[in-house]
Amino acid sequence: MSKIFVDACFRKETPYTPVWMMRQAGRYLPEYMEVRAKAGNFLNLCHNPEMAAEVTIQPLDIVGVDAAILFSDILVIPNEMGMHLEFIKGEGPVFKDPLKSQEELDNLLGGEEAANKLTYVYETIKLLKQQLPEDKALIGFTGAPWTLATYMIEGQGTKTYNVCKKMMYSNPELLHNILRKVTDVVKFYMEKQIQAGADVVQIFDSWAAAIEPGKYDEFSWKYMVEIAEFIKEKYPHIPVIMFPKGVAAFIERGLVYGNFDVFGVDWGTPMALAKEKLGDRYVLQGNMEPTRLYSKERTTECVEAIQNIMQGEGHIFNLGHGILPDVPVENAIHFVKECQRVSKK
């Protein structure tokens, strides 16, 4: 049975434009909160394949999306490379010993050795392949090397990125060495997700906007393109989605290139601009502003506007970033139904 989401990634004819949401398995769902409470904490949930599979499937049953995205976290990669990760209430993820030197980098596991430690992720995917309906796709994912490196260097989330950007300008060689090591782990991680059963993979560059457009290719995009190329060479039947957040200036300057299938458009980038610059080469995904979900009227207005631009061609509906924790579930259901309504062929 064909999967509508996979078909759309390859620009094949579909009965309507498929839809899913970033962070769709999450805190806005009471059912998710129940499982998370049972797990004890967020990392325990990521490390428990049965529970991770359960929360991955919830939005398909409850909200009606066309694809499931694996429940995990981007920071399991540096954690398994050897950096000690904690999720601290009110602060989020923290690495208590951030990377400062080549010597510290050399002490971390790399390549396949690090990727082999993420067995709980692959077990979750295998369970999901047994449980998911045949027509629903499973999206595997990773953080982009730059986004992962920012956490590894800063030690936690940051608004200024001053530690990693100081390294970018004063010790670019070390930053490139970190990015290279992370890239090599990510390649194997993506391959193992695909071997376990992922139908599609997405590379998230959540902190893309922290880099000036003239430096973005050097410190992020080229590494993402390398990962995509590695996947497409070995697994041409697996769609690859790239999602760099906050790169309208990068798109405008015609700097997007690479062998991948779908470009995720963030809410700060006009969909018409993305279509003009990229629509002939890539299927576009996105890009409703997530806070519109607080209003059903504003949701419908935006869904119709995006449909008017894309006309159901080369498009996947999504938010322009993740769904927020206090969005009413009925509003998320409304979004999905509206996307399916306006694009029904």
TrEMBL record:
The keyword Ion transport does not apply. GO terms for molecular function: uroporphyrinogen decarboxylase activity. It is an enzyme of class 4 (lyase). PANTHER family: METHYLTETRAHYDROFOLATE:HOMOCYSTEINE METHYLTRANSFERASE RELATED, UROPORPHYRINOGEN DECARBOXYLASE. It holds the Pfam family URO-D. Pathway: Porphyrin-containing compound metabolism; protoporphyrin-IX biosynthesis; coproporphyrinogen-III from 5-aminolevulinate: step 4/4. Catalyzes the decarboxylation of four acetate groups of uroporphyrinogen-III to yield coproporphyrinogen-III. It is found in: Cytoplasm. It comes from the Bacteria. The gene is hemE. This is Uroporphyrinogen decarboxylase. Belongs to the uroporphyrinogen decarboxylase family. Transmembrane segments: none annotated. The record marks 73 as: Transition state stabilizer. GO terms for cellular component: cytosol. Substrate binds at residues 23-27, 73, 151, 206, 321. Its EC number is 4.1.1.37. Keywords: Cytoplasm, Decarboxylase, Lyase, Porphyrin biosynthesis. The keyword Glycosyltransferase does not apply. InterPro entries: UROD/MetE-like_sf, Uroporphyrinogen_deCO2ase_HemE, Uroporphyrinogen_deCOase. One of its GO terms (biological process) is protoporphyrinogen IX biosynthetic process from glutamate. It catalyses: uroporphyrinogen III + 4 H(+) = coproporphyrinogen III + 4 CO2. It comes from Malaciobacter pacificus. PROSITE patterns: UROD_1, UROD_2. Its main location: cytoplasm. Homodimer.
